[in-house]
Design a protein that fits this description.
The chain is α/β, with parallel strands linked by helices. The protein contains five helices and seven strands; from the N terminus they run E-H-E-H-E-E-H-H-E-E-E-H. The chain has a seven-stranded mixed beta sheet with strand order 1-7-6-2-5-4-3.
Amino acid sequence: MSLQSVSPEETRAVGERLGALLEAGDVLLLSGELGAGKTTFVQGLARGLNYEGSVSSKSFVIMGEYAGRLRLYHADLYRLEDAEQVWELGLEEISREGVLVVEWPDRAPDVLPEQHLKVVFTVISEVARELVLEPHGARAEATAAAMSEVMKG
Ligand code: ADP
Ligand code: MG
């Protein structure tokens, strides 16, 4: 499934719709170059989980935590030097009780949950982005299908 967004607010709105569909244990991996809109999308996810506060870029902190309808754990692995550090974060465990969203998952390919919904962001122009949903596992497939329905209506 592929979507186009032509503004940061539209990317947030897509994230918000996905956030509303999420359940405890869901894992989202966001890939795409710097400035592609991953963090902007997480702001929408948080909104869709009824989190009222702000979500910022995690340049120096690897993990942010937002308590909405579910707890949203936001990891940014851009500055990760060693995939071992990801084990230390215990992502697999914390994702069971909340929702885990990871930017730059390619920095730690073998230590992230196998069952996940991947969202690939591509910069089309200064304001346009393409978002492609790639489900891995039954739960992610169900989420992507539900998202496809929501985006039609
Ligand atoms: P990333 O986390 O992928 O590095 P950010 O979400 O932090 O990216 O930044 C995206 C940047 O691109 C922001 O400055 C945002 O205003 C801009 N932008 C322009 N158009 C879009 C769009 N359609 N969706 C998301 N961000 C956009
Ligand atoms: Mg980011």
